[in-house]
Amino acid sequence: MKFIVSSTALFGHLQAISRVINSKNSLPVLDCFLIRLADGTLSMTASDNDTTLSTSIETSEYEGEGSFAVSSKTLLDALKEIPEQPLSFEINMDNLEITVHYQNGKYSLMGQNADEYPQTSEVKSGATQVTIGADVLMNGVNRCIFATADDELRPVMNGVYFDITPEDLTLVATDGQRLVRCKSYLAHGNEKAAFILPKKPATLLKNLLPKEEGDVQISFDDRNASFVLEDYRMVCRLIEGRYPNYNSVIPQHNPHCATIDRQLFISALRRVSVFSSQAISLIKLSLSDNAMKISAQDIDFSTSAEETIACQYDGTPLGIGFKSTFLIDILNNISSQNVTIELADPSRAGLILPEEQDENEDLLMLLMPMMLND
Question: Binning pLDDT at 50, 70 and 90, where does residue 241 land?
Answer without folding.
Answer: very high
